Fold this protein.
Amino acid sequence: MEAFEILTPLSITLCIVGVFVGIIFGAIPGMTATMAIAIFLPITYALDLIDSLGLLLGLYVGGISGGLVPAILMNIPGTPSSICTTFDGYPMTQKGQGESALKVGITASLIGGIFSLAILYFFAPVLASVAIDFSSVEKFLIILFALTVIASLSSGSLLGGIFSGFLGVYLSLIGFFADNNQLRLVPSFIENELYYGFALLPVLIGLFAITQILQEAETGMKSSPYQKFEFSKKDKFSFKVFNGQWINTIRSSAIGTFVGILPGVGGSAASILAYSQAKNFSKHPEKLGKGEPEGVIASEASNNGLTGGALIPLLSLGIPGDSTTAVLVGAFLLQGIQVGPLFITSNPDLWGGIVYALLIANVIMFFMMFLAIKYMAKLVYVPKQIIYPIIIVMCVVGAYAINNGVIFDVWTLVLFGLAGFVFTKIGIQVAPFLIGFILGKDLEKYFIDSLKGSGGDLTIFFTKGPIALVLWGLILISIVYSLVQSRKTKHADNGVNTPV
């Protein structure tokens, strides 16, 4: 299989379909790129990996980009990463510049996506080549660092984030333990069903699709009130709007890419940080929040800058960069591919295919949205009560088909859908929980391997070498930073619709 296989008609078609469906999920408030990937993941079981990645990466790029439509036209973020797009996008719509605002956001999204793809292409192989020489000690500390970053920078309290991550780790350990040939944490009446623990894909679909539907059902799936909009004939877009904004565009793209590299931080943090910096460096900061293209550029360039950045830790270290890339892990597992330091060198053609898939997805997203934005804008009117029942059926069928008709996978889907709904009520954060669930078994494996190699000496984690000390330093910095941010959050205004 060659890297250029992604350019076959089937791969391109799947990528186009993925982008289109992703835009739909992003444009309808309450539906996200993560939900889209989780729902379509079972379909990839019947596809070659390069074709399935074309579909899934198309969903990823389209879902992130589509969130700007309701953010600009309705003042409702289509995705969490589109929060800051509302600050200037909706005021532009109110001034009769809705089409211009959309096209500014679409263009900035393309630039951010291409920038992050370039960083992914050059940086991921370097990081992977360094990580190849890591022992089990360094691998354990990297996963521990990922969990502390996820916990400390996720929304809510520090203790809540830490608890969420390690609850995921705990549940991942259910099932057969090879070191003593014993089952653990398994009730006797379902020993056969949980011999290998909970299947990852039903857990993913339950947490990101069923949970969301239950949350919407709780509110009655009522359409959010919004002002009817019409595109003005006098509203003409020009690329000249980017004159003087290239530093802002590149800076915001870089911020989004960097935040994407940090495991678990998420698009909303990238958007807020980029918007803040745009305001700090703006010649007219007082105008931001009142309908300036500068604010839309900052938010959307950072959003799509996240896409390539989040893939860097996934493909080079085996650590998901965010909840969406955590779902992408399922696609590799379905095909028997292990992501991590050896992935790029062991699968050079597949690595090239991923790069081409991302490039094609970004270009398709741009032309699809730029040329047909007036029609795509109508997606915000689609009633949820029509779409969600279809999604439920797709989720159940997908969960049942993943392991060739195991009914327990459907119960797993329902269980974690309900669990995710309860989590939102009691403060357990889904993203840290999921990533903890994915990384839990590796965390245990590398911990035990380290102790075996040192004869049970725990000091090996501190004396292994300079890399271990650097990782401990990063873990400490992450915890201290989170404590400072936690205190600031308690005294800060929690209004999300107030410009930064």
Notes: The radius of gyration is 22 Å. Residues 496-500 have pLDDT under 50 and may be disordered.
